[in-house]
Structures are given as structure tokens and as C-alpha cells.
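Researcher: Please translate sequence to C-alpha cells.
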Amino acid sequence: MRKTYFDRIVVDPEIMIGKPVFKGTRIPIYIILDLVGDGVKGEKITEIYPNLTGADINAAIKFASLMMERQVLYETA
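Model: Translation complete:
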């Protein structure tokens, strides 16, 4: 079952084994989130991935935030 988030992010088991990707691409959002986490600026990310926009990057960050809001994390011994 395909799900679309923010009209920019798609989760489809037929694309990248169901990892969230940017609509119309095979670019997983975790790659962009890693770059953002490493301090890479949006302009550089869109230079590396010209199919993406600043709005796509913002959607990835919001998507990650919403997913973490729904997660319950447990500390393991």
C-alpha cells in the first residue's frame, strides 16, 4: 500500500523496499537527513540532488519529526 506524506514523500513497498523517498525519485529521505545533520546547507544539497527543492528538504525534516513523535524508544541494558 502506497502512502504519500506532504505531497513530497512517498512510502511504497515497491520502491526502495518501502523506505520513505521523495516523490518521483528513488532518493531516500534518510540520505538528506544525514546531510542536514552533518551541517550541509540546503543550497548544497539541492546542488548535489538537483531534483530536490528546499521545500523537499523541509518536508523530510518535518516527516522525521512526526515519525519520532510517534515512536517509543527504550533504553536497552
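Researcher: Any highlights?
Model: The chain has one domain: 3-70.
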